[in-house]
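From the methods appendix. Each design record in this collection lists the tokenized structure first, followed by the designed amino acid sequence. Records were kept in a plain field format so they could be parsed without special tools. The example shown here is representative of the layout used throughout.

RECORD:
FOLD TOKENS (285 positions):
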């Protein structure tokens, strides 16, 4: 079981040298080095060169490293990949993915270079067509994860932001269902009001309860909240341990079901309990 955590996934504009350095010390599980929407048009050539050099010079430790290039329908996408390939990127995050054909196109470009032989692909799920094609996208070659692009989705669907995110719910769930069906990581969209900790906490709790593995973030001040909420709580760890013990006892008695705190515990609950403990151990180490 791959226990690499994705509780916090921080966007960093590829043009911001100071932020690129700062991230080597930030408590983020993963980084999205952005060449797309966070970089102004006139800055794009400088940003892609700076990022390729930075990725080869700096040590980001165990943090997962995703590079978001521009899509190949723009004038920048092909140049982004040409320059970033020299840094042997661990993963490319492709924006505006509408269909599996977009992923297959990127996979062919990665196949053609020795430096990107092991590069995985992540997809931004941020268009109505992309959401409707979520399963074929999740099934495409080299796929490792989905990032929900809730700002672009809101724009393309003409929906209004609400704190309960009800207008986004179907899209979030369709993305999640496809990701989980194919064993991919699924990371929730950003919370734009980056100085509003209470609002972020509520949205992280909602995303966690839905089944997301973590939250994309835009500012370091958001890291602690996401790291806390997407980690197993001490109550969950305690319950998992007691469920395993209760189920072991029941098994010894020749019974297939245990009862703990007035609730049944079956084999499938033990699978979840073991995943919670494995995740807690992975985070502790
Ligand atoms: C939002 C910001 C523009 C705010 O920047 P700023 O005003 O400079 O913040 P602070 O002064 O509070 O910064 C304090 C220090 O933290 C560093 N910093 C800030 N942001 C980051 C970051 N993202 N990663 C690493 N470090 C960061 C500053 O450099 C300061 O450091 P120091 O000077 O050493 O103390 C800014 O936070 C920002 O640009 N955030 C990223 C925005 C972004 O990436 N947007 C695009 C992604 S969201 C998206 O595209 C959504 C999706 O596609 C969709 O459709 O939904
Ligand atoms: Mg977007």
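DESIGN:
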């Amino acid at each position: 079981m791959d226990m690499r955590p994705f509780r916090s996934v921080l966007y960093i504009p590829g043009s911001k040298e100071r932020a690129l350095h700062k991230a080597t010390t930030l408590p983020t599980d993963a980084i999205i080095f952005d060449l797309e929407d966070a970089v102004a048009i006139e800055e794009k050539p400088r940003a892609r060169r700076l990022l390729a050099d930075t990725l080869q010079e700096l040590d980001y430790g165990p943090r997962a490293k995703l590079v978001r290039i521009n899509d190949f329908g723009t004038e920048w996408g092909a140049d982004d990949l040409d320059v970033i390939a020299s840094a042997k990127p661990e993963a490319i995050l492709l924006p505006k993915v509408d269909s599996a054909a977009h992923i297959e196109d990127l996979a062919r470009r990665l196949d053609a270079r020795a430096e990107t032989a092991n590069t995985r692909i992540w997809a931004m799920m941020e268009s109505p067509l992309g959401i409707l094609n979520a399963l074929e996208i999740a099934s495409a070659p080299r796929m490792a994860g989905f990032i929900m692009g809730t700002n672009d989705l809101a724009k393309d669907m003409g929906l209004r932001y609400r704190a309960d995110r009800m207008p986004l719910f179907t899209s979030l769930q369709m993305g999640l269902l496809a990701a989980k069906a194919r064993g991919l990581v699924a990371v929730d969209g950003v919370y734009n009001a980056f100085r509003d900790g209470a609002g972020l906490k509520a949205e992280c709790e909602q995303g966690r309860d839905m089944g997301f593995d973590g939250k994309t973030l835009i500012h370091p001040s958001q890291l602690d909240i996401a790291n806390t909420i997407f980690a197993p709580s001490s109550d969950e760890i305690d319950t998992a341990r007691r469920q395993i013990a209760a189920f072991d006892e029941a098994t010894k008695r020749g019974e297939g079901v245990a009862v703990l705190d007035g609730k049944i515990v079956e084999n499938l609950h033990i699978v979840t309990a073991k995943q919670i403990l494995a995740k807690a151990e992975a985070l502790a180490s």
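APPENDIX NOTE: The CA atoms of residues 6 and 214 lie 5 Å apart.
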